[in-house]
Design brief:
It contains six helices and four strands. The chain is of the alpha+beta class. The protein has a single domain, classed as NADH Oxidase. The longest helix is centred in the middle third of the chain and has 18 residues. It starts with a helix and ends in a 21-residue tail after the last strand.
């Protein structure tokens, strides 16, 4: 297992996965990292839905592409018409939802996602934060298909799987974004 600084510096969005399913123990560690995220007012307004059903994942991709193709947004329309798999054929996708009455659900759920992304990298498991899946959330049946508890709205997806290749990525970061006030 990588130490936290190594995980932070080596984590990249992975878009190519092996077909092999994650071990439950690994997935439980990743989910626990999400549960342990900081949260405003201690609300913990998140809910995590784990989907490993390939047929449902394919359906989610197809509906997302259809909704993007008809969105009126040129960027999303191009992706929708591309036919690509926005879930990158990952064997596991987590859907992160927030409690409708939560005060800071976008912030709290984003913190949970980042914890899970770093935990996955610490276990040498690939991950990618998927915002495009919001197109699927426009489907009126999505809450039922994802079996979301009453009072929760889906926010994001996170793909997870064993990396199909070494992911180099672009580690160049603009470091000229800090000033010190002492």
């Amino acid at each position: 297992m990588k130490d936290v600084f190594e995980a932070i510096n080596s984590r990249r969005s992975v878009r190519s996965y092996k077909k092999e399913q994650l071990k439950d123990e690994e997935l439980e560690k990743i989910l626990n990292a999400g549960i342990m995220a900081p949260t405003a007012r201690g609300e913990q307004p998140w809910h995590f839905t784990v989907v490993q059903n390939k047929e449902l994942l394919n359906e989610i991709n197809e509906i997302s592409l259809k909704n993007m193709a008809n969105s009126g947004d040129k960027f999303l329309e191009a992706i929708g018409k591309s036919g690509r798999n926005i879930l990158h054929n990952a064997p596991t996708v987590l859907f992160v939802s927030g409690r409708e009455d939560g005060d800071y659900i976008w912030t709290d759920c984003s913190a949970a996602i980042e914890n899970m992304l770093l935990a996955a990298e610490g276990l040498d498991i690939g991950s990618c934060w998927i915002g495009l899946v919001r197109a699927y959330f426009k489907d009126p049946n999505c809450k039922t298909k994802l079996e979301l508890p009453e009072g929760y709205i889906p926010l994001y997806g996170v793909t997870l799987g064993y990396k199909a290749e070494n992911n180099q990525g672009n580690s160049n970061r603009n470091k000229d974004v800090i000033n010190w006030v002492k």
